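Q&A log
Question type: sequence-to-structure
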Amino acid sequence: MQYQAPYDHRGGSYMGNANWGGYPYGAMMHPAPEPVPYIEHQQAVTVKNDVNLKKETLKLAADASNPGKFSVNFTFDANVAGRMTVMFFAKEGEDCKLTPMKENMQPSVTVPFEQGTGQKFQQPPGSGISFFMFEESELLNVGEAGIYPLAVKAEAFPANSNDGSQNTQITLAVFEKENEEYHVRVVKQILWVNGMRYELQEIYGIRNSVNNNSVGTSDAGKDCVICLTEPQDTTVLPCRHMCMCNSCAKVLRCQTNRCPICRQSIERLLEIKVNNSTNE
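Response status: OK
Response body:
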């Protein structure tokens, strides 16, 4: 059956909203393409960290000698001696300053440590937290007003410094409740070096680029996953996989919005040029 589309006398053409063969004209058009992720360029500098709390090891453990209290345990590495301070309900201020907001109810505790890797930290008996002393809303606070239920401040004392402010790592965590038990989840780690504040973010694969950033070497795991020849220098966000060279990233961003490693949606791409000079 023939169908005559209505004629638009104003423009001298057939109107675009005509129904051809039973299908709306608009349905025949391709959907609008998704926004192309943009590439941000940053210079990465290797920063020396004298003490590092391994955030995946941060846990709560029942204090056997003080029923009802729970102590903080974790593993850490230290290139030099220093001190570890555990605070509850702490607020981060300027210049690496942490202020405990409930010191009268839950005092902070500071413990010195020596140089060494794989050290086990356990909060002294009796100094842990009793969850019955606080409202559940306080314990499950996720960082409102800059206050975190748990903070660990690791200060390093290099031989050429009289204080630990030159190299300090702060780990901020929140409590989560599951099956009527409280657990710890790290939400942020901050590094202060020579008065500069760095917020630590894991980038998967950057270690290969830092250790092997010269073109032409054949170290496994450092090459772009697409061309397999150029070094990796571009990170996918938010999944943080450094897996491509910048040339392949420019092509990929126009073809797909999925990470080639985990297939998560790409919001943006971060090209990182690694400078192996170390800030000390």
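Response note: The chain has two domains: 47-199, 203-279.
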